[in-house]
Amino acid sequence: MSNSSSSKKHDPDQPEISGPTPKSQRIKMDSEKKILNKKLKDVEISVPIVYGSIAFWLGKKASEYQSHKWNVYVRGAMNEDLRAVVKRVVFQLHSSFNNPTRVVESPPFEISEAGWGEFEIAITLYFHSDVCDKPLNLYHHLKLYPEDESGPASTKKPVVVESYDEIVFPEPSEGFLARVQNHPAVTLPRLPTGFTLPPPVPVEDASRKKRGDTKDHPLSQWFMNFSEADELLQLAAARQQVQAHIAKLKRQINVIDGPHQQLKSTSDQ
Questions:
Q1: Distance between CA atoms of 30 and 8, rounded to whole angstroms?
Q2: How far apart are CA 268 and CA 218, in angstroms?
Q3: Is the preceding omega at residue 199 within 30 degrees of 0, hence cis?
Q4: Over the stretch 187-229, which tens digit does the pLDDT of each residue have?
Q5: Which of 69, 61, 50, 75 lies closest to 159, judged by CA?
Q6: Which helix (H) or strand (E) holds 97?
Q7: pLDDT tens across 136-186, in order?
Q8: Residue 68: alpha-carbon gap to chain centroid
Q9: Coil, strand or helix: which one is 73?
Q10: Backbone dihedral angles phi then psi of residue 147, each to the nearest 5 degrees
Q11: So what's the pLDDT on residue 208?
């Protein structure tokens, strides 16, 4: 917060977002407007996103009401440009800030501020008309202070809190699919047998438009990695550990059962 009178610590009764949400918890977005484009049955488009905040302690430059500088944002999971799907993002800050409702009309979808208090930020995503008329509401708890406060505070290492999710658009229109089918931020599932993709819409010359991705963002070194390749590697490593543990338990059981089997054979004679 800027100069509010509440404590710097977050309200313990409020839920805190401290990491990525499981991939299985996807958000289903149903288009409510009846549009002329044909709806594609048994097809869905998913857009992986990350939303969160990065906060730096100002150190010697800190004052009573300006102890941290922070950014809150919505980005593509792999730092892709989201403008093909997201039209604008609205960040609702604490009422103590000047102009607490911040509207960002183009990527990168982020705002920068300074303050001293932690609070919940409402983030509303609005989509293009051929995507979905219903906005998506997200909530992020701005965190300025690290979990472990025993060590010395650092101006170089920020407090990073990010959440991963996938926005799923069921039964998209042909126009939407044609517009985004080759877009790196959009994930297309396996299409139904016999289904033919509509011809792709020509992509705007990248040299003529402002870059909207966050691959070269000044804070990108602090972004968490949510790539599916890393997830698969982690799952493979976990599977190997489980298999090794099962093999170890089987050997231990064989060692224990061995003498018992011998004693049983002797008693039966």
A1: 38
A2: 77
A3: no
A4: 776 666 766 766 666 655 444 455 566 766 767 666 777 665 4
A5: 69
A6: none
A7: 999 999 999 888 765 567 778 899 999 988 899 988 888 888 888 888 888
A8: 23
A9: strand
A10: -60, -45
A11: 44
Residues 164, 74: Cα–Cα separation, whole Å:
10
Query: How many CB atoms lie under 10 A from the CB of residue 56?
Result: 19
Which residue would you say has higher pLDDT here, 93 or 230? Answer: 93
Q: Coil, helix or strand for 187?
A: strand
Q: Which of 103, 93, 123 is nearest to 1 (CA)?
A: 93
The letter for the amino acid at 76 is G
One-letter amino acid for residue 204 of the chain: E
pLDDT of 4 reads 41
188-196 contacts at long range (C-beta below 8 A, 24 or more positions apart): 188/45, 189/43, 189/44, 189/46, 191/43, 192/41, 192/42, 192/43, 195/40, 195/43
H helices within 141-185, ranges in order?
Answer: 174-180
Q: Cα–Cα distances in Å, from 101 out to 122, 133, 147, 213?
A: 10, 21, 29, 24
Q: Which two tokens stand for residue 74?
A: 């919505």
Length of the chain: 269
3-state secondary structure (DSSP) of residue 51: strand
The SS3 assignment for 126 reads strand
Here the tokens at position 60 are 């010697």
Residue 55 CB coordination number (10 Å): 23
- What is the rounded radius of gyration, in angstroms, for the C-alpha atoms of the chain? 25
